[in-house]
Amino acid sequence: MKTYLTNFDISKKTIFILGGNGLIGNEIFKFCLNSNAKVVCIDIKKKKKFPNKKGVFFEKFDVSSLQNVDSFLKKIVNKYGPPTSFINASYPKTKDWSRNSYKHIKLKSYLKNINIHMNSYIWIAKKIADQMIKYKIKNGSIVLLSSIYGILGQDLELYKNTKMAESMSYSAIKGGINNCVRSMASYYGSRNIRVNSIIAGGVLDKQNKIFVKRYKNKTPLSRMAKPEEIALSTLFLISDASSYITGSSMVVDGGYSIL
Ligand SMILES: NC(=O)c1ccc[n+]([C@@H]2O[C@H](COP(=O)([O-])OP(=O)(O)OC[C@H]3O[C@@H](n4cnc5c(N)ncnc54)[C@H](O)[C@@H]3O)[C@@H](O)[C@H]2O)c1
After folding, report:
1. 170 labelled catalytic
2. pLDDT at 6 (0 to 100)
3. How far is the CA of 89 from the centre of ligand 1 (A)?
4. Mean pLDDT across the stretch 135-163?
5. pLDDT digits 0-9 by tens, 90-113
6. CATH fold for domain 4-258
7. Whose CA is nearest to atom 28 of ligand 1?
């Protein structure tokens, strides 16, 4: 009897994870690590305790230097082979990121954040897709981390009496990524490459207690996400179990966006 469970198997994939050292990226990395896939963790910094395991690699790259993407990809594709799967979980931001509210934002910061986050996500995804085509990859899959704030406005009530605030840049960045995923999926579909984003809800990570309580109250599952819950969804999207899903923005938010 045919079992479709093998479609979830990612052990034969070559997976590039950008931002693989972060809160969500590292969970994705850990899952891939245990799957026996070939995994290349790409990040601006290397973790001190990076695992020493066959088929697992680290490459340093700063996504804010987009002019170096071509040479960087050429180098790593020559070293590890072309990727079958690419996940971007990086979170590039300027030092004044917390001052991206409508009240405090500066033009320079706004433009810079759009460039290092939205533009790098979209440009690097395009360049990865082009590599997949060049090497005739079948079942290529690209997954970009997005957010509920790419489909919803930010509820200012959540931030009252905390030091947190809405971010003007973030909505533009994530909204832009979600829509480019649709146009990329349209273009690359006939070239055997699927492109999707994950609409992640807030992940619990030492946020202000008042904020967390309000956030829980607004969420049908009454809690914030665990990083591994977001990671598992990205694994589904790179696996062949999701072979008919492209151009979608998969909502993983505990129901936050339905109300
Ligand atoms: N954490 C959340 O609550 C949450 C919710 C929704 C969506 N997201 C999205 O998920 C993604 C990951 O978020 P996270 O919370 O894991 O972020 P994080 O800050 O924990 O990790 C981001 C990773 O990106 C790397 N990075 C930062 N700047 C870089 C650069 N210039 N070049 C290369 N790498 C760089 C960091 O070193 C880090 O390893 C982001 O796109 C974020 O917007 C996060």
Report:
1. yes
2. 94
3. 5
4. 97
5. 999 999 999 999 999 999 999 999
6. Rossmann fold (3.40.50)
7. 92
